[in-house]
């Protein structure tokens, strides 16, 4: 299906609601029944009926259909945050005694799930450098049942060979799960490469306006139903109808925003690369990126996030740079309309900063919807201060 159809029409049944172009927000907790038998059927298969909004809700359903289609997947569940999507998707697929392989630098709260929470329930995890296939093979154990990927990640953009990992996992009956927030389905479609479950933080590019959190998982009907029937209903962290409506609204401009952000990011990338005060820029589709060839092969694009370091950066110069920006805002998250900066050293206690450690020098920039010149002028004046 074409992206334009998915974003503008797919999943919507306007004749059911006065032919309104924007769908209604079904802000209801529960749904009425006339027949006991219908109620019984709904209890038996809650995914098939409008019974209670912790399960299925009509506004959320429109969003589920669009997001499944974007990923080329059979079905989708939407959660009230990306972290909730990871939690439910992983929990539904591991049990005590299982072993997980996880890439070494996933999103911080995904890392906590594997490093701190799951060990309490007898699930062990090996964290590996996922840039090399042999590390997956070496980490395999007889009880390995789950592989968690994030490609690229959102600071250093390390990439896994998705087709190769999927093939290895399939040959051993291992479930694969990817956090695809960086690329979005516009730039990477992991389900088509053989990955079982594809997760995205809708808070970022899908919402696009920094006004709601959300998360999603897509996959086969069977795998999605397995998550729904158990963890989704039990954890109760499905998205609320109003927030689902905001995400549908975000989708209308999704492609247009990604195109613009991609173009501006390319301009800012060149600006930073040629700036005398910039030491190094990390961006997966830049020729200098260590995994450039693989990135080009499996990603159709890369957009708003890049990481750079200052020449001879110190805690002081990095701080001066970030605090000198007048328009680019210092804040966590990304994917919204507004450009953002965040220095790695904000997470490092002053005495622990090591200038010799490249990652301590990292400054992450998110490029939003502003004009490229406006952003480059701001970067230029802040760089001239260090
Ligand atoms: C933000 C983010 C998450 C978590 O999403 P929330 O909606 O904040 O819970 C997970 N993975 C990645 C890559 C993210 O950037």
TrEMBL record:
The keyword Transferase applies. The keyword Transferase applies. Its cofactor is pyridoxal 5'-phosphate. Keywords: Aminotransferase, Pyridoxal phosphate, Transferase. InterPro entries: Cys/Met-Metab_PyrdxlP-dep_enz (IPR000277), Cys_met_metab_PP (IPR054542), PyrdxlP-dep_Trfase (IPR015424), PyrdxlP-dep_Trfase_major (IPR015421), PyrdxlP-dep_Trfase_small (IPR015422). Belongs to the trans-sulfuration enzymes family. This is Aminotransferase class I/II-fold pyridoxal phosphate-dependent enzyme. It comes from Paraflavisolibacter caeni.
């Amino acid at each position: 299906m074409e992206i334009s159809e998915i974003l503008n029409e797919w999943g919507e049944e306007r004749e059911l609601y006065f032919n309104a172009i924007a769908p209604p927000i079904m802000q209801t907790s529960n749904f009425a029944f006339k027949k006991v038998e219908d109620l019984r059927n709904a209890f038996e298969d809650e995914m098939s009926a409008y019974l209670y909004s912790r399960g299925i809700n009509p506004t959320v359903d429109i969003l589920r259909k669009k997001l499944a289609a974007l990923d080329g997947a059979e079905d989708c569940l939407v959660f009230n945050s990306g972290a909730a999507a990871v939690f439910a998707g992983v929990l539904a697929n591991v049990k005590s005694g299982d072993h997980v392989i996880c890439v070494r630098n996933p999103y911080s709260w995904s890392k906590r799930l594997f490093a701190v929470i799951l060990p309490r329930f007898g699930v062990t995890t090996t964290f590996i450098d996922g840039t090399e296939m042999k590390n997956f093979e070496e980490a395999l154990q007889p009880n390995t049942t789950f592989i968690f990927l994030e490609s690229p990640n959102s600071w250093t953009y390390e990439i896994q060979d998705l087709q190769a990992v999927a093939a290895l996992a399939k040959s051993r009956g291992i479930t694969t799960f990817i956090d695809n927030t960086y690329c979005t389905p516009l730039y990477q479609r992991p389900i088509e490469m053989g990955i079982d479950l594809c997760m995205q933080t809708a808070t970022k590019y899908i919402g696009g306006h920094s006004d709601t959190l959300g998360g999603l998982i897509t996959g086969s009907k069977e795998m999605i139903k397995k998550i729904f029937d158990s963890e989704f209903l039990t954890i109760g962290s499905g998205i609320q109808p109003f927030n689902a409506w905001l995400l549908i609204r975000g989708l209308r401009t999704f492609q247009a925003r990604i195109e613009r952000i991609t173009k501006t990011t390319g301009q800012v990338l060149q600006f930073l690369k040629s700036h005398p005060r910039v030491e190094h820029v990390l961006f997966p589709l830049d020729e200098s990126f260590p995994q450039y060839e693989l990135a080009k092969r499996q990603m159709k694009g890369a957009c708003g996030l890049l990481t750079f370091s200052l020449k001879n950066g110190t805690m002081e110069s990095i701080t001066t740079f970030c605090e000198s920006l007048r328009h680019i805002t210092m804040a966590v998250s990304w994917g919204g309309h507004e450009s953002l900066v965040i220095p790695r050293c904000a997470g490092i206690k002053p005495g622990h900063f090591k200038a010799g450690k490249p990652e301590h020098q990292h400054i992450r920039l998110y490029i939003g919807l502003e004009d490229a010149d406006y952003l480059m002028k701001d970067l230029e004046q802040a760089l001239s201060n260090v």
